[in-house]
């Protein structure tokens, strides 16, 4: 059966799940759009519940899980990215806590406090995956890991990563118990350049919100570091600063 109407009950439910974080949490699912992203979700063991596919657009191998076929005109209306690749998957959400993460002796973690912009979170996840960061923690989150824009901007990288949400207190306790070096990032006269610090052992680097930076909770909890800059501006976009930091961690680990 080909679904063509926005008034179809299945489409109404899908639209709610696509647009409302609380609906996804209530249903215990997350939504994945795009062929590459769905392939990565499956590759890393996520359990699909159903798919919405436009045969005129989709060019991949059809999944074996329950499929609802939709018209091209309808797909253009419901898809977050218009006609992109013709597949939307609904997957079961499995909750994970910091207690599930068992860090290695050289584990590197990026911590984002109250990150607000889904695009920034997705870009940082992509950098973390590319440079071998072992986990990403978002404290006191203001955006959903499974926001469609997070998945899009991370190109599905979050599916193969250790990602967690926790409070500041829970995160600090985890870092202390597991004996992490803590590095903060905010403007201060005593901040050292990040490449001057040894990041080869257990290290956690913290970044604050796009608007106001790290809160006072973290400012006395570790050593403060900054990315060196030669220009006239005094700050970088959050995702750029995190990407440079991730690369520096990998660079040090690759040194002989």
Describe the structure.
The chain has 256 residues and is an alpha/beta fold. The chain is built from nine helices and twelve strands. Strands 8-7-6-11-9-12-10 form a seven-stranded parallel beta sheet. It has a five-stranded mixed beta sheet with strand order 1-4-3-5-2, with helices on both faces. Helix 6 links the parallel strand 7 and strand 8. Helix 1 crosses helix 2, helix 5 packs parallel to helix 6 and helix 5 packs parallel to helix 9. The longest helix has 17 residues. The radius of gyration is 20 Å and the shape is elongated. The termini are far apart. The relative contact order is 0.14. The mean pLDDT is 92.
Share in helix: 25-40%
Which stretches are poorly predicted, pLDDT < 50 over at least 5 residues?
A: none
Number of helices: 9
Shape: elongated
Number of strands: 12
Strand and helix layout:
Blueprint: E1 2-3, H1 9-19, H2 21-27, E2 29-33, H3 35-43, E3 48-53, E4 67-70, H4 72-78, E5 87-92, E6 108-113, H5 118-130, E7 135-139, H6 148-154, E8 163-166, H7 168-177, E9 181-184, E10 192-193, E11 203-207, H8 216-219, E12 223-226, H9 238-254
Parallel strand pairs: 1-4, 3-4, 6-7, 6-11, 7-8, 9-11, 9-12, 10-12
Antiparallel strand pairs: 2-5, 3-5
Helix pairs in contact: 1-2, 5-6, 5-9
Protein name: RNA methyltransferase
Family: Belongs to the class IV-like SAM-binding methyltransferase superfamily. RNA methyltransferase TrmH family.
GO molecular function, one term: methyltransferase activity
